[in-house]
Write a structure and sequence with these properties.
seven-stranded mixed beta sheet, alpha+beta, 27% strand, 32% helix, 176 residues
């Protein structure tokens, strides 16, 4: 993995950003209108509104991505995180997430938010290991995605206690 670099999105990465996300979404769900709005126009949908996109690249080939979508002052949605199938389970997703959290901190973020689906257990374990915690039901707002049924947040700049992915109560006890 030492030959993988994580860098900011370039306009020439638009096709790779689309394809990386299309692959995982269609593997488990289906592309929804909200996906297409973001994936077809990452410049206007993410970058021009104050967000950022990071790409994981090996030998000039984009093998992963992660976006920070501006939600409001100091708040970003961590979204559109994908790693190409042949590169999964090698720490690239963790590296992208770590770089995204560090970037959000440098941007002055106070809160990161994400939406996922309960069937993506590997992704959920990664999110929890990186300090994301489930939102209490009363704080969940409707999603643009029908597949979203798990909503998490991570306060930025605060040390979150480690949580075992095997203890579902531990993750929710800090935020309820």
């Amino acid at each position: 993995m030492s030959d993988v670099i994580v860098r900011e999105f370039h306009p020439a990465d638009a096709d790779a950003f689309f394809e990386l996300n299309r692959e995982w979404i269609q593997r488990y769900f289906w592309l929804e209108p909200a996906d297409l709005d973001v994936l077809w126009q990452p410049q206007s949908a993410i970058l021009d509104t104050g967000g950022r996109i990071l790409m994981a690249v090996r030998n000039g080939v984009c093998i992963g991505c992660c976006a920070l979508i501006a939600m409001g002052p100091g708040e970003y949605e961590l979204a559109k995180m994908a790693v190409t199938p042949t590169e999964r389970r090698h720490g690239i997703g963790r590296r992208l997430m770590s770089a995204s959290i560090a970037l959000a901190e440098r941007m002055g973020a106070t809160r990161l938010y994400l939406e996922t689906n309960h069937t993506l257990t590997g992704a959920m374990a990664l999110y929890e290991s990186m300090g994301f915690r489930p939102l209490p039901k009363e704080r969940v707002t409707p999603s643009h995605y029908s597949r979203a049924d798990v909503f998490m947040e991570r306060m930025v700049g605060l040390r979150m206690p480690p949580v075992s992915a095997s203890d579902p109560h531990a993750a929710s006890s800090c935020c309820s």
